[in-house]
Every structure is written in structure tokens, then in C-alpha cells.
Design a protein that fits this description.
252 residues, five-stranded parallel sheet, 10 helices, 9 strands
């Protein structure tokens, strides 16, 4: 999978993405990350890409020309020139990013991420090239670089081979609509706190049942909105779980 990040700070982006799992994925060729410095398309000797906003107001706005030309440079080099690329603009006005969105983006061969700065980007170029306005939360950052790195990290994990064990992504929070169950490792006893006995039993069916139950409990406590949605969308599975719990209670 190929990521193309349009930014004023390419070193900042690559400095973070070259570490850990994404760094290994880049080294092994499972993903590629191409940063495009918007300043390279400024068209003036000072490399200015911003100007005052029409109508007044505080701050500077990124000009449309450099952004558009930077995008065109990506189009000229893309692997499949006939396929329209998805262009994500990182903005607090966008749709909140979630795991379902990450799954959707992971299906793309090429993904372009546009990082704004200052007071944002001239609306005209956004209308021309952007396909998705995406937010990482209801707050404002200095620029789109950190959110872009988060998108690359979340999407890369879904590319086959990146995690080493593709099963790892299946059991993470949000994959099936529930938060992930609690996990434990050695030692068995820490500060007088014990690992739940079922996890030491070797009984895979009981372990799976315990993990499902814990995911339900944790989601209900921490994200009741997700819990209600899950129950509504998975009535049959939840009812089967309740039947199993009722049988266990009768046996006791």
C-alpha cells in the first residue's frame, strides 16, 4: 500500500513513521510512505505558500496553487494512472475517524493525505481534490501532520503482514464493535493481584467465553454508546451468550 502525504513538514512525518511497526513495514516494502513538500511548489524565491484571508480575520491561509501542484506531482507518479485516488484532508470539521474507516482506507492501493497548517487551506483547492474530510477529534492542532501519522499507523496495521500475525488486528478494540478484553502476562502474581484462573486453564472455549464477557462488561462501562450499538446490531449473538450464561447459573 502506498501513502502520499502532502505537508509543509515532511521530516516531522517521516521521523515518527520510521519507528516501530510502521518503520519495519516501510523497510520490508509492505507499505511505502511518500512525503510531498508543498513548499517545493511555492513558485517564489521565499517559498511562501500562505497569504492573508479575503474578508479579513486572524492568521494566514495556505494558497490553492502550491497544494494543487503538489497533488498533480503525485498523480504523475502513481502506479495506476487510470484509477482515481482517495484524498483525505485532515480537519477538525471532518468525519470522526474510526476503525471502520481504517478498514475502508486499507483497501486502497494509493492513499493521499493532505495536512493543513496556519488557518487552513483555500476552499477552492479542497473542492477540487479532496474526497474525504477526516477528523481525529473535536479539538484543534497546529497542523495535520500528527493526525496524518495516526491515520497511516491505524491503516498500516490492517495491511497483511505488517503486524507479523494478522490475527492480532482481529482481537483489538473496535474491530468487532467492542472494546478489547483485559490481557495479562507473567508473572502470575503481581502486587498480590492474580491472573484470572480461566486464562491459565488451557480450556480455549472457556477462555473465549470469558474474553467475550469481559469485552461486553468493559464496553458497557467505558463506552455505553458502543455497547448499545453492538447489542442492537448483534442481537442473535448476544442472545446466545445470555442463554449460555443462564445454563451456567442453573448448574451452580
Amino acid at each position: 500500500m502506498n501513502f502520499h502525504i502532502m505537508t509543509l513538514f515532511p521530516d516531522m512525518v517521516m521521523g515518527g513513521l520510521k519507528e516501530s511497526i510502521t518503520g519495519r513495514a516501510i523497510e520490508t516494502g509492505l507499505i511505502s510512505v511518500n512525503t510531498v513538500n508543498i513548499r517545493d511548489f511555492a513558485g517564489n524565491k521565499y517559498n511562501h505558500v500562505d497569504d492573508y484571508t479575503y474578508g479579513g480575520g486572524a492568521g494566514m491561509l495556505m494558497q490553492p496553487g502550491p497544494v494543487y501542484d503538489a497533488y498533480q506531482s503525485i498523480l504523475e507518479k502513481k502506479s495506476n494512472p487510470d484509477k482515481k485516488m482517495r484524498v483525505i484532508y485532515m480537519t477538525p470539521q471532518g468525519t470522526p475517524f474510526n476503525q471502520a474507516m481504517a478498514n475502508e482506507f486499507a483497501k486502497e492501493e494509493d492513499l493521499v493525505i493532505l495536512c493543513g497548517h496556519y488557518e487552513g487551506i483555500d476552499e477552492r483547492v479542497l473542492e477540487l481534490i479532496v474526497t474525504d474530510n477526516v477528523s481525529i477529534g473535536d479539538f484543534v492542532l497546529t497542523g495535520g501532520e500528527l493526525p496524518a501519522m495516526m491515520i497511516v499507523d491505524a491503516v498500516s496495521r490492517l495491511v497483511p503482514g505488517v503486524l507479523g500475525c494478522d490475527e492480532s488486528a482481529v482481537y483489538e478494540s473496535f474491530y468487532d464493535g467492542l472494546l478489547e478484553y483485559p490481557q495479562y502476562t507473567r508473572p502470575e502474581t503481581f502486587m498480590d493481584m492474580q491472573v484470572p484462573p480461566v486464562l491459565l486453564s488451557g480450556h480455549h472455549k472457556n477462555i473465549a467465553e470469558w474474553r467475550y464477557e469481559q469485552s461486553l462488561i468493559r464496553t458497557k462501562e467505558r463506552r455505553p454508546d458502543l455497547y448499545e450499538k453492538y447489542i442492537a446490531e448483534n442481537k442473535e449473538e448476544y442472545q446466545q451468550y445470555q442463554k449460555r450464561q443462564n445454563k451456567l447459573k442453573k448448574k451452580r
